[in-house]
Amino acid sequence: MDLDYGMLDGRRPYYRFGDVDGDPLLVLPGLSDAFQRGEPNRSTAMALTGLFREFSDRDVWVVGRRKHLPVGSSTRDMAAAYATIIDEEDLWPADVIGVSMGGLVAQYLAADYPDYVGSVAIVSAGTRLGGHGEEAVKRWRNWAGKGKWSDVLADTEREAADGYEKTIAPPLIEFAGRFADFRPEVPADVVLSCTASLEHDSREVLDSITAPTLVAAGSADRLFPEPRIRELKDGIDDSTLALFTGVGHNLATSEPRKLNGIVKRFFEGFRGDGLYP
């Protein structure tokens, strides 16, 4: 398996793995991308190859958003930047997986740049945050502005995790925060990313999305509740819903094998019964 990682234009972290001769697959990460520290590294690269091992026959690019985001950056602006990458790296048409905030960006990427997108999987994202999700992201933005990084990280686990992680991880993070520095490399990027997520509302552009679209989410997602998920699905003509009963926002990491198997078959053109949970 080919493996490459680094910074595109010195500003945007990327990981590339799989078969470089395979069809391109672009993965857009969630809000946690803004919390990263340091340069892309081999250990993270190996973790990503494991997480996306179902796509080892594809030319997989996991590309983060640029560091030092311009003030006022919207999810639509971020989509435009990804379109530039697809063009410059000659990846089009690429299949796209957008997770959480990456799923918000993917909506505009598919709507505004249809020639660049083959099929798209929007994971754990809706047309806009639900009411509870808005309150949570506002809370994270406020704490990020005050440098309360362990509070932010602990609360994201409370809101997004499933099972024992939901109860065990937050107090461990809060305890570790007494001794460890969780400050991200570019703190302002967290605040700007939270604001972009809060302002996202894609309802008026959904009818512009012509790419076959899979909307995959957990029925117990506290940030993007089921009505917001179904609103997204219903607004896109060629769309399919995969709803994971009882699963929360961390679908991509709590059910990676089942999710990736569904996404892979969707990208291969299978739309029949039995594909979805």
UniProtKB/TrEMBL annotation:
<protein>
    <submittedName>
        <fullName>Alpha/beta fold hydrolase</fullName>
    </submittedName>
</protein>
<dbReference type="GO" id="GO:0016787">
    <property type="term" value="F:hydrolase activity"/>
</dbReference>
<feature type="domain" description="Serine aminopeptidase S33">
    <location>
        <begin position="73"/>
        <end position="252"/>
    </location>
</feature>
<keyword id="KW-0378">Hydrolase</keyword>
<dbReference type="InterPro" id="IPR050471">
    <property type="entry name" value="AB_hydrolase"/>
</dbReference>
<dbReference type="InterPro" id="IPR022742">
    <property type="entry name" value="Hydrolase_4"/>
</dbReference>
<dbReference type="InterPro" id="IPR029058">
    <property type="entry name" value="AB_hydrolase_fold"/>
</dbReference>
<dbReference type="Pfam" id="PF12146">
    <property type="entry name" value="Hydrolase_4"/>
</dbReference>
<dbReference type="InterPro" id="IPR000073">
    <property type="entry name" value="AB_hydrolase_1"/>
</dbReference>
